[in-house]
Amino acid sequence: MGTNAPQEDPIVKALKDYTTCDVSDALCKLKFPNGGFLSGLTMWSPQRQDGPTKVVGPAYTVEYAPLSDPRPKWPSHYIDSVPAGAVIFVSCPPQIPNAVYGGLMSTRAQYSGAVGSVIDGRFRDVQEQRDLGYPVFARETGTAPPAELLKVVGVNVPVKLQSEEQRDYMAISPGDYLIGDLNGVVLLPKNLAERAVELIPKQVEADEKMAVEIKKGMSFVEASKLFRL
């Protein structure tokens, strides 16, 4: 009997077996800056830096800007067009005390089938997020909504990461893959995804063999020479 359910993205399916560190190792071999690590973004929900939560999916990006920005405000609410399987990435200008994401956003995102949200700024309604069991990674928390300072000016557009150390060169584009777990959040550009997925299993297997021998007394240097290419 047939089904109309969309097929799972093979990249997403492959990445579910691995950690953000595994993905970063592959991206380092591919010479992508910082192994794709997005600094300053940590897990707040469903638990604070605890538990087995992992999110993997293509980025659905949202750009906030100051009210003074000449671009018009986005005519509808971005949360109502989130595709199933997406990781929502909300970009906020730096040094903004207001939250740009709240519990109702996650309620709608969860209903739409989004797998998690990454907030490059502040978010609020922490307990509500946790009660939903919905994964949220963010820079910090807040209490006030964004309307007095900010407006949405773009949806599914490239956005720059707002951390000081990466602002000049790290950007997230729609459809790039985002992977989040206890270690943080990693960006896997879609043009590198297939190559990274090919590298990861070999790396993980080598590290597992190293761990076995190190536990038996082999030195790290010796194990590296034996198993790592």
Automatic annotation (TrEMBL):
Reported cofactor(s): Mg(2+)
Gene3D superfamilies: Ribonuclease E inhibitor RraA/RraA-like (3.50.30.40)
GO molecular function: 4-hydroxy-4-methyl-2-oxoglutarate aldolase activity; metal ion binding; oxaloacetate decarboxylase activity
Keywords: Magnesium, Metal-binding
Binding site for Mg(2+): 124-125
Binding residues annotated for substrate, in chain numbering: 102-105
Domain of life: Eukaryota
Pfam family for this entry, one: RraA-like
Name assigned to this protein: Ribonuclease E inhibitor RraA/Dimethylmenaquinone methyltransferase
Organism encoding this protein: Podospora australis
